[in-house]
Write a structure and sequence with these properties.
The complex is a heterodimer. Chain A is an all-alpha fold. Chain A has one domain. Chain A is globular. Chain B is of the alpha+beta class. Chain B folds into two domains: 48 residues, no CATH class; 165 residues, Mitogen Ypm (Jelly Rolls, Sandwich), CATH 2.60.120.510. In chain B, 19% of the residues lie in helices and 35% in strands. Chain B is built from four helices and nine strands, in the order H-H-H-E-H-E-E-E-E-E-E-E-E. In chain B, strands 1, 2, 3, 4, 5, 6, 7, 8 and 9 form a nine-stranded antiparallel beta sheet that branches. In chain B, strand 4 and strand 5 form a beta hairpin. The longest helix of chain B has 28 residues. Chain B is elongated. Classes of the chains: A mainly alpha, B alpha+beta. At the A-B interface, helix 2, helix 7 and helix 10 of A face helix 1 of B.
Chain lengths: 235, 237
């Protein structure tokens, strides 16, 4: 496979550039809430609007750097499609459960705290990728951990949906549409991430690069934690 | 997909892992303190945010003495529930309800101001009010606009400006009682990429109004809404 790629290093560099570009696209929406224009539009929607909410769900995922960082961490060392599907399913079950229940039961979780935990999930995943917990003598069921953090990502999604001020009319349809949209967005993100990682994997730069890439993920997670906790204490 | 397992790199040594994690934490801390906190919350312990011009991105970063001054006042702004279309509104009763007294034989005037703000366009409307003159107002826009409701006395000029509300709002309804002789009103800015239509109705003891736009300051005559527009009715009926 390596031979077919004439210059794997160049491809890897181009791939990383693409990832950066994708991440940068999320920057204008740094607070990563639903944008004001979308909020204004949703405020006028009464009744079921499945495609509008499907789009919003997908958009939230594709522009959601916190979810994307976690997904990169989850699939970083997964090269079998089967493993990718298993882990991503755990994540999907987790976040769908709390997204649906969180909105329907109208539970009030503080979004700063939830988003800080989402940041922590990124740190956790990067540390685990580096074999950190094994080094510390901790045996963690990685699939359960992804499921557990998925629950928090879902709570985060639920608070964003609640912020939209959904009308009761058509709530279930719109909520499920949003959830499906989230999964569509997740598939789009994963397709890109897995593709780029697989391009990079056969290269000689992957082994040393993986260490630094996970440290970068970890730094991003720490940054998110600090950002959200400060927001919590400042508000 | 090929199933030839690419070698997963050997995990780093304990030392390398701990140093790496510490470096990641330190990098995040620096990025947070130097860039994110100043830009997002206006919290700038190192002063780097100010030097880099990041604090201006955050509303909280601008220490606003005008807002502090205005909000220190009581009995100036009495927020009301938006009454939807202010048709056949009995302003006298609202004043009485809020304990705002009108001078004897005061003549209430009414005014309607309508404007469309293009993306990132801003405009300022001010009413001339004497000290203690009350005014009922209600404005609404078809999207949230950034608003600064403020006034300044004729004596003292813009230096003595006081802000009462600085926020992103789609509408505002309240009674305002002028704390001094001067001009009193709003600066609105549309911070979306869509045009926003804004309508203001006011009833009270205004004696005139002024518009401030990029072309400068203009006197504007009060424009009572025509009866067929179903506007606010001054006085009782």
């Amino acid at each position: 496979m390596t031979q077919r790629l004439a210059q794997p290093r160049w491809v890897a560099a181009a791939g990383l550039g693409l990832v950066l570009l994708l991440l940068l696209q999320g920057v204008p929406a740094f607070a990563h809430d639903i944008s004001d224009s979308d909020r204004a539009a949703v405020a006028q929607i009464v009744g079921p609007a499945p495609f509008a909410f499907l789009y919003l769900g997908a958009k939230h995922m594709v522009t959601g750097y916190d979810h994307i960082l976690f997904l990169i961490g989850v699939v970083f060392f997964l090269y079998r499609l089967r493993d990718v599907i298993i882990y991503v399913s755990m994540f999907t079950i987790g976040h769908s459960a709390t997204l649906l229940l969180g909105v329907l039961l109208d539970t009030g979780a503080n979004s700063y705290i939830v988003d800080a935990i989402i940041g922590f999930s990124v740190v956790y995943k990067a540390f685990e990728n580096l074999g950190g917990f094994r080094k510390l003598g901790l045996a963690i069921n990685t699939k359960l951990a992804v499921l557990g953090f998925g629950l928090f990502h879902g709570l985060g999604l639920a608070t964003k949906v609640r912020d939209l001020g959904l009308s009761e009319d058509g709530l279930l349809v719109n909520l499920i549409s949003f959830n499906i949209g989230v999964e569509v967005g997740q598939v789009v993100v994963l397709a890109v991430v897995v593709f780029l990682l697989n391009l990079w994997r056969p290269s000689r730069t992957f082994a040393p690069g993986a260490f630094y890439a996970n440290l970068a993920l970890m730094a991003g997670g720490f940054l998110l934690i600090g950002y959200q906790l400060t927001g919590y204490f400042a508000s | 997909m090929t199933e030839t397992a690419p070698t997963t790199p050997a995990p780093p040594s304990r030392k390398k892992l701990l140093i790496g994690s510490a470096v990641a934490l330190a990098l995040a801390a620096v990025g947070l303190v130097v860039f994110v906190l100043p830009a997002e919350y206006g919290i700038d312990p190192t002063g780097a945010g100010k030097a880099l011009g990041l604090t201006q991105l955050s509303e909280g970063g601008r220490e606003n003495i005008y807002l502090k001054r205005g909000q220190a006042r009581t009995n100036v702004l009495f927020p009301l529930e938006a009454s939807g279309e202010p048709k056949r509104l009995v302003v006298n009763e609202i004043f009485a309800e809020k304990g705002v007294t009108l001078p004897a034989n005061a003549e209430l005037k009414s005014d309607r101001f309508e404007v469309e703000l293009l993306p990132y366009e801003g405009i300022e409307l001010k009413y001339v009010l004497d000290e203690d003159a009350p005014m009922w107002f209600s404005w609404h826009a078809d999207g949230p606009v950034n608003v600064d409701m403020h006034s300044h006395p004729f004596a003292g000029g813009t230096e003595a400006t006081e802000s009462f509300v600085i926020d992103d709002l789609p509408a505002q309804t309240a009674i305002y009682v002028a704390p001094f002789n001067g001009i009193h009103g709003w600066y609105w800015q549309n911070r979306t990429m869509e045009p926003v239509k804004l309508t203001l109705d006011a009833v009270g003891l205004m004696t005139g109004s002024k518009i401030f736009d990029p072309a400068g300051e203009h006197d504007r005559p009060l424009a009572p809404p025509r009866a067929d527009e179903g506007g606010t009715n001054a006085g009782g009926d």
